[in-house]
Design goal:
Layout: H1 2-18, E1 48-49, H2 54-68, H3 72-75, E2 79-86, E3 92-96, H4 97-109, E4 111-126, E5 131-144, E6 150-161, E7 164-174
Parallel strand pairs: 2-7
Antiparallel strand pairs: 1-4, 2-3, 4-5, 5-6, 6-7
Length: 177
């Protein structure tokens, strides 16, 4: 009896491994055209392909890692010569990447260490604008040389053009204690 059960089990495994399943039977879906009517119109774009180019997300995440590791000089290769940055405090920087990285170096001087716990990221392509964007959600933990450590929740959006970061913005929220 045990041999018969073993034989049946092996047969079921072999059959299931060689059977091609319909994606609708497994719950997987293919992207369908969006035919819904929404109560709002996006001011920038709602014609998005997601996921899009994962190599773009890889570049942006590399910038984050270089920043966390205080390897600021290594970040330059990922940026266009001119970049725009809107920070969470409502300030805008538009200028050379060299000047922006100089600001970053000064900011890092006051930190003992910095760590990101990344919740998720998403790489999207704005079809109607032919633009590639990466959004990242994370917890930033910064440990100043003087003062108390702090954590903030953050979300950033990065626009990449011709393989280089040309724009990014940032949103932050304090972690409730």
């Amino acid at each position: 009896m045990k041999k018969l059960l073993l034989f049946l089990l092996i047969g079921v495994v072999l059959i299931s491994c060689n059977t091609k399943q319909d994606s609708t039977a497994t719950g997987a879906s293919t992207a369908a055209a969006d035919t819904l009517t929404y109560p709002y119109k996006a001011t920038y774009s709602s014609d998005i392909t997601s996921p899009s180019h994962p190599e773009i997300a890889q570049k942006v995440l590399t910038v984050w890692k270089l920043f966390a590791d205080n390897k600021i000089d290594g970040m330059k290769a990922y940026y266009a010569d001119t970049v725009t940055y809107d920070n969470a405090e409502g300030n805008r920087y538009h200028g050379s990447i060299d000047t922006l990285l100089s600001y970053v170096r000064n900011e890092m001087k006051g930190l003992d260490s910095l760590r990101f716990d990344i919740s998720r990221w998403e790489s999207v392509h704005m079809n109607d604008k032919d633009e590639d964007w990466v959004s990242i959600w994370a917890m930033e933990r910064h440990y100043p040389k003087q003062g108390k450590p702090d954590s903030i929740l953050m979300q950033e959006n990065w626009k990449v053009k011709d393989g280089k970061v040309v724009y990014f913005n940032q949103y932050k929220a304090n972690v409730l204690r």
